[in-house]
Amino acid sequence: MRLYGDPVLRRKAKPLQATDTLTVPGFGPQTVRQVANTMLETMFEARGVGLAAPQVGLNARLFVAVEYEDDEEENEGQDTPLRSRVLREYVMLNPVLKVIDKKKDRSYQEGCLSIPGIYEEGVPRARAVQVSYTDLDGTARTVEADDYLARVFQHEADHLDGVFFLDRLPPEVTEDHRGELLKMQRHAKRYLEDLAAAEKEAEKHRKENL
């Protein structure tokens, strides 16, 4: 999981096709379907409700999300497997959001798997959206969502444009969490250094075995 401070989380992600082969940093080439399945498993393990490709180091316009049986905090009931509460899973390639209810909702608490431990209320989100996207079979689809699910889709779509939920709150909110965010930035830097070293070592071994 990439944390706040990792440059990939601030980039505008690139479009992709269902037939593409993706290379997740630190892993070998995978199909889009394989990546999506891994992202869903990662999301469930982290007890989340959505996960965007940049959060696993991929600069691709892809996110996964789930609709649960209720809108309770996903971290409640730690002993209950989240998959048992899932009504529907979503895998969206190149999602395009259209607001269908412009009235803003600020009632839900929002968090992010890339900013663990920080939760804030008051993030303004459209009450209802329509999402056009491509599924894993390459089929164009459209879905409408309101309230909590609409918020999830907007949150994940933000990640594809390099936007965090904290960016949608007054600057002083981010400043209040400055200490925690600086720790995440240091962790992100160390992870990237370790990843680069591992990739360099792997390349060295490949050359030696040619």
UniProtKB/TrEMBL annotation:
It is an enzyme of class 3 (hydrolase). Pfam families: Pep_deformylase. GO terms for molecular function: metal ion binding; peptide deformylase activity. The keyword Plastid does not apply. Keywords: Coiled coil, Hydrolase, Iron, Metal-binding, Protein biosynthesis. Its EC number is 3.5.1.88. Its cofactor is Fe(2+). It catalyses: N-terminal N-formyl-L-methionyl-[peptide] + H2O = N-terminal L-methionyl-[peptide] + formate. Binds 1 Fe(2+) ion. GO terms for biological process: translation. Gene3D superfamilies: Peptide deformylase. Residues 181-208 form a coiled coil. Fe cation binds at C112, H155, H159. The active site is at E156. The keyword Phosphoprotein does not apply. Removes the formyl group from the N-terminal Met of newly synthesized proteins. Requires at least a dipeptide for an efficient rate of reaction. N-terminal L-methionine is a prerequisite for activity but the enzyme has broad specificity at other positions. Belongs to the polypeptide deformylase family. This is Peptide deformylase. The lineage of its organism: Bacteria, Thermotogati, Deinococcota, Deinococci, Deinococcales.
